[in-house]
Specification:
Number of domains: 1
CATH class: Alpha Beta
Structural class: alpha/beta
Helix content: 25-40%
Strand content: 15-25%
CATH superfamily: Vaccinia Virus protein VP39
Largest sheet: 7 strands, mixed
Length: about 220
């Protein structure tokens, strides 16, 4: 069931049950986004007045599906094509009080990467922001495998799983925000890839879906 419009920081805080500190960090994020948007196209201009619903809540909904950390080691969360930080930077902020996670955001656009670094600095959130291309072997070697891989509006699912595959271990969970064409995208992706998945209705968009994807492997002939 989609949430009605989340128009204020207070409404976001109530819906997602976050602390005052998390809400304040996101308020700082929103202010920086509006300021930087004047010179860099970070988000669609039509969504600028709906930051809390279209961007923050849309990203934050993934937090409830996070895998349980049953080990003492820190989980690695990887966000592909982070853009202005959705969903990766929002999730890093959500995680900033709980610990146990390391967040890596990959964005090849140097201006968007600079924006995210400024948000991280102002909010005092620990994230690794890499201004590299996701598909480059150098990027893959630097990051290695992740426990959780996220992406929003990056590519059709068939291409997305191809990009994400080098970062998947046997237990990796993919959390991807997709739109109304998700069923066709899953069908196309399944031609070349094997995976288990669960589809969950988005809480911010009636036709949107969260794809939880595991056990990703290339499909072999025969």
């Amino acid at each position: 069931m989609a949430l009605s419009g989340i128009d204020t920081p207070e409404e976001f805080q109530r819906r997602f049950e976050v602390s005052d500190e998390i809400r304040e960090k996101l308020e700082t994020y929103a202010a920086l986004l509006k300021r930087w948007q004047k010179t860099i196209n970070l988000v669609a201009p039509s969504t600028l007045d709906e930051i809390w619903h279209r961007h923050f809540a849309d990203s934050a909904q993934l937090w409830r599906y996070r895998p349980e950390n049953t080990q003492e080691s820190t989980q690695t969360w990887l966000d592909l094509g982070s853009g202005a930080g959705f969903p990766g930077l929002v999730l890093a902020i959500m995680a900033s009080e709980t610990g146990g996670t390391r967040h890596i955001l990959v964005e090849s656009d140097s201006r968007k990467a600079a924006f995210m670094r400024e948000v991280a600095r102002e909010t005092r959130v620990a994230v690794d922001i890499l201004g590299m291309r996701i598909e480059n072997p150098e990027t893959q070697a630097k990051i290695g495998k992740a426990d959780c891989v996220t992406a929003r509006a990056l590519a059709p699912l068939s291409r997305l799983v191809e990009i994400a595959a080098p970062y998947f271990a046997s237990s990796t969970l993919g959390m991807f925000l997709k739109g109304r064409d998700v069923s066709a995208e899953l069908e196309n992706a399944a031609r070349d890839w094997q995976f288990a998945f669960e589809l969950i209705p988005s809480v911010t968009e009636e036709a949107g879906r969260v794809v939880l994807l595991k056990a990703l492997n290339p499909r072999t002939e025969g």
